[in-house]
Amino acid sequence: MKNHLMHKSTRTLQFNWVILTLFICTTLLSQDLNPVYKKIHLGDQVVQLKIYQKPGKNVTYAHVHENEEASLAAGLRMVGKYGGKLITLAHSTDGKTNRNVTFSYKKTVYKFDPNRIYTQDLNVLKNSISVVKGKGKVDDEIIKMVKNLADQVWMELADSPFILALHNNKNTPAEYKLRWLFWKHIEPESYNIKSYIKSQDQSSDSNKSCADIYINPALNNSEFFIVTQREDFNMLVKKRYTVVLQNDKPVDDGSMSVYASGFGKRYINAEAKLGRIEEQTTMLEILLRD
Ligand SMILES: [Zn+2]
Q: Which of 114, 123, 172, 212 is the most exposed place for a label (fewest CB within 10 A)?
């Protein structure tokens, strides 16, 4: 009996050691990926720029759409596995995650897409900001505030030789939507690889910014890359992954891919459907494995 008890206590001790070791390991691992926060004031609000860093690959992941959570999860996995730097924005105060940044200033509420603010052209930036509520205007003071956010984000990326942007899309089909009681309108198909193809003789901004495209018919149209350099395009074609090559004169819409290519940066955007962490991880592995 005594022997049995002793045996039991040894086993408990061993078990405790395992738990303790596991605890230390996970704590160390998560400590590795604890972000540094930079607070950026935007009117009455604060946008948190979260920066994760781990020694390893010389790549910076840019995640600017807060609600695109699958791409953030996949990116953090990659940083944990290969090292690198990842920046992400946290700005929502409603308990949800939102694509657009909303802020108030002098009783007016403003809104903008945080991937439409990277531009030297202040008119493009101005057009990216809209008034949601109130009588204020998108004046120089407001533009300056948003420009400051863009500059702070870019500062974290400017020295990186390789920017890997992380995005998710909805990829919903065209559908009828009911407005008021009788008025129906057609909501067009949302963004996907087909957005880059000239359609019904109409050139969209995406199509105008596209130099080349390769589509693997076996892949879904939500998952694809956008690259700024021919070498990356050729590499992905070889690996048979759907890819768009941005041209030399893309439409300046304030998006980071256009801004980055202006600096001659190696920039790759990995697009996957919302929620598809595994697919996006596979995509990132294609870029990082070798
Ligand atoms: Zn996005």
A: 123
Distance 112 CA to ligand 1 centre (A): 13
Burial classification of residue 72, based on how many CB atoms lie within 10 Å of its CB (0-12 exposed, 13-18 middle, 19 or more buried): buried
**Which whole number is the average pLDDT over 282-289?**
95
Centre of ligand 1 to C-alpha 245, Å, is 18
Cβ-Cβ contacts under 8 Å for 87 (sequence gap 6 or more)? 49, 50, 51, 52, 60, 61, 62, 63, 153, 156, 157
**CA separation for the pair 46, 40 (Å, rounded):** 6
CA 106 to centroid of ligand 1, rounded, Å = 29
Q: What ranges do the domains of the chain cover? A: 53-95+146-288
Tokens coding 183: 């008025």
Beta bridge partners of 142: none
CA of 270 to the centre of ligand 1 (A): 10
Structure tokens at 220: 């879904």
Taking the centre of ligand 1 as the mean of its atom positions, its distance from the CA of residue 12, in whole angstroms, is 49
Rounded Cα gap, residues 65 and 132, in angstroms: 19
Helix (H) or strand (E) holding 184: strand 183-187
Report the predicted TM-score, pTM, of the whole model to 2 decimal places: 0.86
Residue 22, CA distances (Å) to 8, 15, 18, 54, 192 in order = 21, 11, 6, 20, 42
Q: Which residues place a Cβ less than 5 A from the ion ligand 1? A: 65, 68, 167
What's the gap in Å between 244 CA and the centre of ligand 1? 16
